[in-house]
Recover the amino acids of this structure.
């Protein structure tokens, strides 16, 4: 084996001359390692904060940010608890029964959480002080989808077992069957799932098995709107402040925008991403969770951007955006995470 030649210093180099600056640089790097300007973790500079749920018996399913910024609420599968994350600390409200597919969740202007409770065939309201109010659906079996709170404080939710998008207002239920829509002949077997309410009171719902939407006007008139995406696998839906409707076409691996009578499709770069949830930020961007791709994503000004999560085994199932444009997600592995608004804007 030949010897490695000794390194030669450039002409005029003097260790004495450079010792102080080099020492200062090393000291500065050491300080940054101990006091980083961003949270330590995978893709550190992207600004993710994650909070591990206590215990391992339940996992989060749905997520909603309170309009009054009082916290981020979440439902738990197979649990008698409803959770809220406030100031980096978890709190829990005990519910009447153990959850099964608690997919519907929203928070009203007073900071109270509304959620679907299929085992009790009810819609339930919970407050931070632990107060619970239950509103029975009057059915023996209920499969329930998403839920939204309207500007008039009524609650709308999907009832797939009854083929209905239902309003709960002042304790009274009003059902809007898909079959009653003016042009529902080709969507009679459709199952409503996603629900969102626009600022003007118009209700939108995705119709699974039909590649269509249900639109319920403030007057109560309903109509079916065909979505030009075949085998779309429509799931979640959200409405921006300007009335733009966003929806997930999970089967087609796309996010779809509907505005001005026109549909625009945005393919998700990650193949077979497993799109699970959708939310619209105050700035108008649409955010989505991609469970199988282990990331969240954004559609802004026609551009799709993906954000890999800090852990390789992350499985984001729900997403929400608070009033400050911070993006929150629920991870089936037992975490609630946040992507800070300033970090999101940087990409």
């Amino acid at each position: 084996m030949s010897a490695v030649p000794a390194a030669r210093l450039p002409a005029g180099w003097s260790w004495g001359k450079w010792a102080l600056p080099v020492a200062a640089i090393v000291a500065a790097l050491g300080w940054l390692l101990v006091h980083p300007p961003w949270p330590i973790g995978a893709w550190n500079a992207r600004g993710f904060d994650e909070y591990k749920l206590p215990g391992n018996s339940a996992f989060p399913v749905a997520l909603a940010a309170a309009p009054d910024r009082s916290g981020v609420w979440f439902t738990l599968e197979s649990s008698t608890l409803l959770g809220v994350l406030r100031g980096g600390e978890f709190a829990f409200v005990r519910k009447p029964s153990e959850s099964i597919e608690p997919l519907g969740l929203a928070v009203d202007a007073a900071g109270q959480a509304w959620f679907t409770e299929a085992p009790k065939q009810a819609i339930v309201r919970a407050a931070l002080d632990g107060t619970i109010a239950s509103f029975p659906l009057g059915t023996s079996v209920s499969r329930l989808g998403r839920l939204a709170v309207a500007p008039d404080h009524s609650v709308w939710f999907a009832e797939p077992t009854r083929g209905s998008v239902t309003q709960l207002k002042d304790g009274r239920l009003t059902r809007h069957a898909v079959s009653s829509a003016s042009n529902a002949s080709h969507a009679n077997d459709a199952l409503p799932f996603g629900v969102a309410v626009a600022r003007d009171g118009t209700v939108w719902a995705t119709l699974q098995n039909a590649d269509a939407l249900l639109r319920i006007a403030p007057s109560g008139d309903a109509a079916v709107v065909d979505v030009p995406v075949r085998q779309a696998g429509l799931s979640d839906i959200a409405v921006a402040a300007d009335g733009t409707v966003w929806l997930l076409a999970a089967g087609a691996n796309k996010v779809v925008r509907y505005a001005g009578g026109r549909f625009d499709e945005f393919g998700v770069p990650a193949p077979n991403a497993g799109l699970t949830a959708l939310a619209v930020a105050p700035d108008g961007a649409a955010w989505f969770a991609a469970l199988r791709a282990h990331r969240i994503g954004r559609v802004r000004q026609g551009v799709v951007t993906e954000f890999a999560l800090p852990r390789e085994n992350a499985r984001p199932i729900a997403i929400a955006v608070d009033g400050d444009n911070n993006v929150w997600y629920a991870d089936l592995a037992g975490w609630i995470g946040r992507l800070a608004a300033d970090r999101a804007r940087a990409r």
The longest helix spans residues 15-34.
